Amino acid sequence: MAAGSSAIRGTRVGSGPMGEMDHGHQAERVSVSYWDAKGNEVVKHYAADIPEEEIPEIVDHPKSGLPAGRDKENPPSPEKNEPYKTHLAYVKERRSDDEAQELLDEALQKLREKRGE
């Protein structure tokens, strides 16, 4: 830009008049605060005309990852994490030791027959 131009320093090209507040219609909304077990607050915004029963009671806090509820004095407790189970652990839940032995014997018998033993 040439020295002595009429542009105002610090404004964007194509921006409206300084101080213009009308940047489109702002929809009415409600703000709901949620707290996690560490006392962290997160505010979520919902449309003002949404029914109360559609606003969630519990959300995940974006920073702590803990569940956060609307009651500051009684936030939801973190969910108990189940340890990772292997496929074998799931199988053992479904089968008794006797059933497992029977299935193993059947599989070995089929394998032996296939090999011609």
How does this model look, in words?
The model has no long low-confidence stretch (mean pLDDT about 85). The longest helix is centred in the last third of the chain and has 19 residues, at about 95-115. The chain is about 25% helix and about 15% strand. The protein contains 2 helices and 4 strands, in the order ββββαα. About 5% of the residues are buried. Strand 3 and strand 4 (about 65-70) form a beta hairpin. It starts with about 30 loop residues before the first strand and ends with a helix. The strands form 2 sheets. Strands 1-2 form a two-stranded antiparallel ribbon. Strands 3-4 form a two-stranded antiparallel sheet. Among the domains are: about 30-70, no CATH class; about 80-115. With about 120 residues, the protein is an alpha+beta fold.
Attribute tags:
117 residues, alpha+beta, elongated, 2 helices, two-stranded antiparallel sheet, two-stranded antiparallel ribbon, 4 strands
Largest β sheet strand count, sense and barrel closure? 2 strands, antiparallel
Radius of gyration (Å): 32 Å
Elements, N to C (H/E): EEEEHH
Given helix and strand content, the structural type is alpha+beta
Widest beta sheet: strand line-up:
1-2
Question: Which band does the percent of strand residues land in?
Answer: 15-25%
Q: Please give the oligomerization state of what you see.
A: single chain
Distance between the termini: 92 Å
- From the spread of the alpha carbons, the general shape counts as elongated
Q: pLDDT under 50 segments (min length 5)?
A: none
